[in-house]
Automatic annotation (TrEMBL):
UniProt GO molecular function: acetylpyruvate hydrolase activity; isomerase activity; metal ion binding
Segments forming domain Fumarylacetoacetase-like C-terminal: 59-254
Domain Rv2993c-like N-terminal: 1-54
PANTHER family reported for this sequence: ACYLPYRUVASE, ACYLPYRUVASE FAHD1, MITOCHONDRIAL
Lineage: superkingdom: Bacteria
Source species: Amycolatopsis echigonensis
Keywords of the record: Hydrolase, Metal-binding
Cell cycle listed as a keyword: no
Protein name: 2-keto-4-pentenoate hydratase/2-oxohepta-3-ene-1,7-dioic acid hydratase in catechol pathway
Gene Ontology biological-process annotations: carboxylic acid metabolic process
Amino acid sequence: MRLARIAHPSGVAFASIEGDGDDAQVLEIAEHPFGQPNFTGKRWPLADVRLLAPILPSKVIAVGRNYAKHAAEFGNEVPSEPMLFIKPSTTVVGPNAPIRRPSDVGRVDFEGELAIVIGQPVKNVPAARAASAILGYTVANDVSARDLQKSDGQWGRAKGFDTFCPLGPWIDTSIDPSDLALRSEVDGELKQDGRTSDLVHKVPELVEFVSRVMTLLPGDVILTGTPEGVGPIVDGQSVSITIDGIGTLTNPVQDV
């Protein structure tokens, strides 16, 4: 199932997307998408609704340096345990929403990532049971103010600006995340070309590790890290991140 959050003619709702291309339809879900969804019977062509961020998490937990070649491109070692940092919920925006780039922070980079969406409250879940805690997967862009990341040491400011965590276009609940192609393009030019099979710490391990630190709530998001090839984005550009089997997340860049 592909779960989305949409703005439709009567308001905002969660929905399931059926079909592809011009024939795609969205089926409204009553209340929330967790557990067995209840459908209202309302449906629209996908072209007649606007896709929003597919989930509004209480927290976004991100994992740093989880691809060896990305760590190496900045002269870093891969940590022996997952390196965690938090992005505020206010960083989250949806497809086609602008990444609002502060004009006074220096270099701002895109980082294409696979995102895990949690489906139920969990604490201390073992890796062997991690799949039962996961609602599905979506595409993420861990936007980063690179100069601040270097100067601050701590990453909260560099990673925490409003709009610095685009998510979308929807959540796929059935895909196997172990070996997916991930590509990032800026204005149509390929920048990142990686595979999730190159993750140092794999999805089950990440869910186990994070849930030992903090309780994960339904809708919480874990960003799994980015492959090599990250780079700067500037006003007027457009960033598209594609994960095969899930879809493409595209966002314009605007200076503020």
